[in-house]
Design a protein that fits this description.
The chain starts with 29 loop residues before the first strand and ends with a helix. The chain is built from nine helices and eleven strands. The protein has one domain: 3-Layer(aba) Sandwich (Aminopeptidase). It is globular, with a radius of gyration of 19 Å. Strands 1, 2, 3, 4, 6, 7, 9, 10 and 11 form a nine-stranded mixed beta sheet that branches. Helices cover 34% and strands 22% of the residues. The N terminus and C terminus are likely disordered.
Length: 290
């Protein structure tokens, strides 16, 4: 997950029954609203379109440093692209090829990580507590949306697509690395400390930054932080994960390539579901009293 690449996850804008896969198409994920569609990548051209979008956002837009082959091909890619599922949002008004892809997320299930040998996050965190979980787990990463589409329904569609995927595979835990801008921990002492004091994952589900990469998050005492102001200033993606019940692991990690400082996010889907349910109940009550 890359902060700033996508906006915050919002409560699903559709009824739960509508996040199931389209039986007629045979797709696990197939949701449309107007010209927009969210589905999984189905061919090499789809994956290349996601990689091209990631390159434009991360390297051209956010100043990440590409490897020479990435720069030559103008693609963001790594070995995980071959074993993951790529979630895509397409705007069919833009065409039918790569230009139609306006949003993407990378999804890695336990089975895929086992075939590859590890999860992406394992390069930064000891995720043994998550891997030890008996239920299905899912790593989220490489999220990005075209800048002109961020105020539009693309974010909701991506999260509706994730919801369909979670329901299909009965995912119990979501996790991944989310980012704060910059690589100077002292410059982001307030948000790191806020996350440590207010959102640390319970011990049984708490990843820890690898010893050689560990950056202390507890940099300021809790009473030295303005909680409301600090929360409001967090990157939208991280703030959104917290809003739906997310936790963070112990320790941050500096990512020189992306010019960011990462934290490990953990989401229990049952907690997210509870928050969605309360959201729908609240909406219903408001409509009844209107």
């Amino acid at each position: 997950m890359i902060a700033g690449a996508a906006s915050e996850p919002s409560l699903l804008p559709i009824e739960p029954a509508n996040v199931l896969g389209d039986e007629a198409s045979g797709r696990i994920v197939d949701i449309t609203t107007g010209p927009l569609q969210v589905r999984l990548a189905e061919c090499a051209a789809d994956i290349e379109a996601a990689q091209a979008l990631r390159y434009r956002i991360f390297y051209e837009g956010m100043g990440a440093r590409p490897a020479p082959e990435m720069a030559r091909r103008r693609r963001d890619f790594d070995a995980f692209d071959d074993i993951c599922d790529h979630l895509l949002v397409l705007d069919h008004e833009r065409g039918s090829g790569a230009e139609a892809v306006v949003g993407t997320y990378r999804l890695i299930r336990r089975e895929a990580a086992q075939r590859h040998g590890k999860f992406y996050s394992a390069a930064e965190y000891d995720i043994a507590p998550l891997v030890a979980h008996a239920g299905e787990i899912l790593e989220l990463g490489r999220s990005c949306v075209e800048p002109t589409y961020r105020p539009r329904p693309v974010i909701q569609l991506l999260w509706s697509g994730i919801a369909a995927y979670v329901l299909h595979y009965r995912i119990e835990l979501l996790f991944g690395c989310a980012s704060l801008p910059g690589i100077d921990p002292d410059a982001i002492a307030a948000p790191l400390s806020y996350l440590y004091h207010h959102n640390l994952a319970p011990p049984a589900l708490r990843p820890r930054a690898l010893p050689e990469r560990y950056i202390e998050m507890n940099r300021l005492p809790a009473d030295a932080i303005d909680p409301a102001r600090t929360l409001a200033a967090l990157p939208p993606l991280i703030k959104g994960y917290l809003r739906v019940g997310g936790f963070v692991g112990d320790g941050a990690v500096v990512d020189e390539q992306f010019n960011t400082t990462d934290v490990c996010i953990v989401l229990q889907t049952e907690l997210v579901t509870e928050k969605y349910s309360r959201h729908y109940v609240r909406q219903a009550k408001e409509s009844w009293s209107a």
